Amino acid sequence: MSLNFRFAVISDLHIALPHTIWNHPSRFHLVEVSIPVLENILDRLSTLKLDFLLLPGDLTQHGEPANHTWLAERLAQLPYPTYVVPGNHDVPTLESDGNAIGLADFPHYYRSYGYDNPGQLYYTCQLLPGVRLIGLNSNQFDRHGKQLGCLDDAQLSWLQTVLAEHQDDLILVMIHHNVVEHLPGQSRNPIGQRYMLDNAPTLLKMLREANVQLVFTGHLHVQDIACSKGVYDITTGSLVSYPHPYRVLELRTDDRGQRSLHIASGRVESVPGWGTLQQTSRDFMGERSQPFMLQLLMQPPLKLSQAEAAELAPHLHSFWADLANGDARFAFPTFPASARRYFERFSAIDANGQPQCIDNNATLLLS
Predict the structure, then answer these.
(1) Would you say which domain of life the source belongs to (predicted)?
(2) Residues 262-285, buried b or exposed e (16+ Cβ, 10 A)?
């Protein structure tokens, strides 16, 4: 089947109406701009002929009912279908605590955005003839109420059935947590691990067997495209974090039947009241990321002393911002050899050490 369509991805919106915003010195999200940045992007997308829009989770800052209601009503005004999945911020507690909705409440807010069956936290739907979306829920809770990032057995069994029933369709999967590593050693690093799906190998095996190649994720707040044995994990940076990106994607089929996915990324440079949004946001991220940089330096594999980490951390002020922007190249010639090699591994390079700038704009050939 000759498929040609265009869609967009906006991730980690963290929508926060003014009365729901709280301040904390460690807050990493510039949620004050969540609504004006979203409006800016939607205005840009209005000039395009989109077939649909994907929002891979963290739709709200802390699962506030008012923020979920506002977003659902705003999406209803769009001229194209929109599909969502929950992120960890959308359902921070299993049961509603009065401040945030409970896990089972989420589909009821988004019945028009994938959840035809509000009694189920995952879904599948036909986007276009021959094109199917699978929206997964990666939010679970243990018996102590701790939030986990994984797929439960019932969801995996359901997924196996859906993949078998629609093996002739082009399938897109959307899930909040990453399923392929976007950072070196992400699945083993305590900082990066929290952004990975705990049972990602199980999901990847199922997707490969069904020849599913495209997975859209969020959570990490980084522009990155990673591939593992034929499965692409396209993660999109956050609407409320530098560089405030979004993606427009086109799937095309040529005369020989070859399918390719063309990816272009945009940025929101300014919004009313934030004329220097990019620089302000970059500085904000640099300041708030210093505790994470200290952790990164002091934990394995570097295991530097607190004094050694404190000496190097200021040189990493822009590290996370550069990483979030995608396609970064890193060089720290004054660092000790082990630290220099470690941070150079975060550069956008291929297996041969050559530049590989595919995080923002790329063309992926599909089988």
Answers:
(1) Bacteria
(2) ebebbbbebbeebeebbeebbebb
Rounded-to-integer distance, Cα 5 and Cα 231, Å: 20
- Is residue 299 included in any domain, yes or no? yes
Specify whether 103 is located in the same domain as 145: yes
Query: Where is the domain boundary, 243, 267, 291?
Result: 267
Tens digits of residue pLDDT in 25-35: 778 899 999 99
**Owning domain of residue 304:** 277-344
Identify the residue whose tokens are 């915003």. 21
Is residue 333 domain-resident?
A: yes
The length of the chain, given as a count of residues: 367
Looking at the predicted structure, is the pLDDT value of residue 206 above 90? yes
Tokens of 325: 């922007």
Q: Do 193 and 303 sit in the same domain of this protein?
A: no
**What tens digit of pLDDT does each residue of 142-159 get?**
999 999 999 999 999 999
DSSP structural state of residue 347 = S
Give the integer Cα–Cα distance in Å for 321 and 286.
7
